[in-house]
Amino acid sequence: MRVKASERYDKIVSVIKSCETKEQLKNAKNMCETHLQATENMNEYMFLMNHLLNKEMRLGYETKNNR
Fold this sequence. Notes:
Helices cover 84% and strands 0% of the residues.
């Protein structure tokens, strides 16, 4: 069964939102790059990378606040 590109996009966004470590974010980035290769949709890729960057910044702020 093939997964639609929009379903894959939604799944990646939910994975990014659930990331709690830098290692998990690295794996999510790999998912984004795989998605780009499969769909060749640079627009979606940029939105995914934006989600990823925002999550990375949030994790960084949370880490600083917990020190």
